[in-house]
Structure formats: structure tokens, C-alpha cells
Amino acid sequence: MSIDVPSFLKDRARVVDEALERLLPSESEPPETLHRAMRYSVFAGGKRLRPVLVIAGAEAVGGRVEDVLPTACAMECIHTYSLIHDDLPAMDDDDYRRGQLTNHKVFGEAMAILAGDGLLTLAFRLIADNFAAAAASAAALREVLVDVADGAGTRGMVGGQAVDIESEGKVVSPATLDYIHVHKTAALIRTSLRVGAVIVGASADQVRTLSAAGSSLGLAFQIVDDLLDVESTSEQLGKTAGKDQAQQKATYPAIHGLEASRTRARDLIAAAERSLAELGPRAEPLRALARFIFERKA
Amino acid sequence: MSIDVPSFLKDRARVVDEALERLLPSESEPPETLHRAMRYSVFAGGKRLRPVLVIAGAEAVGGRVEDVLPTACAMECIHTYSLIHDDLPAMDDDDYRRGQLTNHKVFGEAMAILAGDGLLTLAFRLIADNFAAAAASAAALREVLVDVADGAGTRGMVGGQAVDIESEGKVVSPATLDYIHVHKTAALIRTSLRVGAVIVGASADQVRTLSAAGSSLGLAFQIVDDLLDVESTSEQLGKTAGKDQAQQKATYPAIHGLEASRTRARDLIAAAERSLAELGPRAEPLRALARFIFERKA
User: What are A107-128's pLDDT values in tens digits?
Assistant: First the structure.
């Protein structure tokens, strides 16, 4: 089976966009400004990678898109909230994201903080909504909640951010760099790949396979991100290129060099592909997606 | 039955403190600074009103403290996160809270933002943990999640904050003032009073009664807060008194005057007591607590 990844991604992203449009509070519902601020960042041109991974994870074990859409949207809400808070002056102080002004540049810092808080809270509401069917299992809902809270919380994404912030301008060890990348980025990608499968009733073995693939894929994604920051122009990225170095961020190229970073990313993608092969042909879109992540240009 | 409210509160608050000590990540677990920041604000002398309401709500319908402790702690995590974010320079810019330096004054703004994010995320993990028993019902877990997400999100607390921030320095209508107070404070207090009862299997009628009481109690609580800001010293409050007026905040006394505000708070407390009477003698601690909220001095 040969997959055209750009059109696969585009197709799934369109379904996610339609669902987000429906599931996010309307701009005409009070508090209007806050809802406008939330929608501004959610619809600022994200690739929808995390929700697509939720969907592809579900499909890889025989589930359907519509079974996991609210949870897919929840992962995008969490990703977007993290970008809004990261861009704040007290954090990375970014003016542009995906070629557009960052949230606080448009709505002010207070509203940006609240828009992030609102999106994070909404994510858990959407997960609850995903289990509205009478036959929903409490055990599966619990597993998804634990997965998402751990992937997004201090033992995952927020923890990685905290160590990232603390490490700015310092010489960090390769172990600390791994800690930052694994927590800041890989944790939520791993969670995305798992939760869709859990919702549609995957076996423990299948979830373990997706976990392993998600860990590799997530770390590879962040290493490629580091490489793009060095090798691309701001125009290509839609955000300021070379910013990691300017902010003395801990990155793979800075610590391991460009060539070793490329090799590490390639090895991780290969490991993810091998894991996914265990799931058979239904996981072929995911394998193609893994290769695409390695080859992406923005 | 006569209840000694201060010792009832103190006793329940001690149980909550012990549970928070156990359920919050340790300061020796990475990311250490972030976990220290979270614990700093959670253990900064809060009255634990919201968790006590979760417990008292459960007890009012025949449940036990230990059935709802993780969710009680979740409500305190949400309350604490909201205080940390509110105190930020971009929001209310407060240096002191409960007589101690605010989170960002000790840990810096970036860490304070992340500590808030971490606590909000942890809250949903704790709710999931509360349903770890094999017999847990998916419907009850869903109901609690929806209740908490709506009470804390843009249709509740965060929505009230957004309108509060937007209204600073403006002349607000009584309707807008009600919107702010109902959402900013009353929503989460109402949720607290409901969720404990839902977890222990309260009937729909019992939950409705607690909702009504919670709405009245929550609004009364915020009006009393407004009154205390005018009538107390900073020493009594442990935070800067008179700050609402200095920041041109929309408050009950500013719009309706002191006497009308006192009357409104008293009427709301009476309404809450009447609702709670429907639940019989097991709700007597809650009724005493309602009176105590009206008479509190800080």
C-alpha cells in the first residue's frame, strides 16, 4: 500500500478542523474576547499533527475517525495552549508563530494567559464528551485521562518546559537535553498515538506498541525541529529561525552537532517504523507519517 | 445538632492537607523547582473551603470523606492555580497572598505560569484517580469531569476572570458585575458542592439541591470578599486591602453600596440554608458553614 502522506494529512486535518470549529465555543458566546483569543490561536494554521496521530492510532487498531474526534481535538487544544503560554514575554517572548502575531501580541498578556487556561480546561471537557455513549467504559476513560494528564503535566510537557526554561544560558548535559526533549515534546506525541487506540478498545499489546512508536516518533520530531531552527529561514518556518541559539536553548545540534543529530533522528524514525510494522497494514499510514516527519521542511 | 464550625473546618482541612501532601508530586521528584513552586502555593495557608465543600457535599448525602478526597484535592489545585495566575504582573500584579510572597515573586513569572498549568492538569489526574475502583461508573466520572471543566473553564471561572480583567477601569452594569461574580467565584464553589455528592451516588434531586445552595453560597462568598476588601486591614486579610478600589475593580460595594451588599449576601446565605434544609440533618454542617461564610473576617 502506498500512501500519499501530504494528502492523507490534509484530509485528516480537514476533518479535525471541522470538528474544532464545532467543538470550540463560538466567538459570539460570552466571554466573547476570550473565546476569540482561543480560536485565534487554534485556527492559526497548525498542522494538526497530534489529532491526526490520535486518529491514525485508532485506525491502526481498527477504529474509526468519528470514534475519537473529540479527543483528537482535545490534544490540539492542549498543544495550542502550550504554544500560547510558551510565547509569553516571561517565557520565550515570541512575537510570531506560524507567520502570524502571537496571542499576547493581539489580545494582551492577561487574555493570552486565560486563553491558554481555557483551552487546557476545555481539553478535559472534550475527553469527557468523547465518552458520552451509554456503553462507555470507566476504565478506558480513566486510562485516557491519566495518559493525557501525565503527558501534558509536570511529568510530561509542562515538566519539560520547566527544565527547558531553567536551562537557558547554561551548559546542559546530554542527559538533561534528553529529559527536556522527551518531556517537552515526545510525551504529548506518545500520548496522542495511544489514546485513540485506547478509546476504540485496543489490546494492551497494541497500546504498548503504539507507546514505543510514539516515544521514538516524538523525540525524532523535536530533534528535526531543532535542526530546522538551524537550517531554515524564518520565512520557511513562519517563526523566527535561529532563535534557539540566540536564546541559548539546549538543542540537539548545539550539543551533538548537526550530523549526529540527523543520524539520531533517522534511527528513531526507523525504530518507530519497526514498532508500527507489528500492527500490520492498517498502520501503514502511521509508518508513512513517521517518514514524513523526518523529511518535513517546516 | 449544634456544630462548632471553626473546629469542623479545621478538622476537615487537616484531612485535606494530609491528602494534598500525599497526592502532590514531591519536591525531590524532577522537575524539582516546578514541584516546589506548586507546593509553595498549595501549602501557603489556604482555608481549604472548596475541598471541605466537596467533602461536606458528599457527607450531606451519606457519603464518606475517603470516597472523595482526591477530587476534594483537585478542587484545591484548581483554586490555587487560579490564584497563581491571577497574581501575575499581567493580571492583578499582586506581591502578597495570605501574608506570603506570591508565587512569581519567589519563583519568577515563567515558573509561576507553569506551576499554575501543572496544578490545573494535576486536578484532572486526581479526579481520574478518584475513580480507580473497579466498580466506578463511567457516567459519574463523566458528570464530574463536565462539572469541573465547566465550573473552571471559560463558561465558569476563567470566563469570569476574563470579563473581570476587561472591565477594569470601566463603569460596569449590575448585570456585568453579576456575570463576573457568578463565573469568577460562584461557579467553582457550586461545582465543589456538587461533585462530592455525585461521586458517592447522590440522586438527581439531591444534586439539584446542592447546586442551588452552591450558587447562592458562591455568590455570597464573593460579595463578602468584596466587603472585606473595603472594611478590613491588609494585616487582617494577609493581602493588600483596598486593592479592588485602587484597581478600579467591579465590586458589589462599589456598585450597590455597603448596606445593600450586606443585605444581598445575607439573603443569599438564607437561601442556601433553606435549600440545604431539604437534605435533612446530615446537611447541618453545610448550613453552619454557610452562616460562617457570612460572618468570616478574612
Answer: 999 999 999 999 999 999 999 9
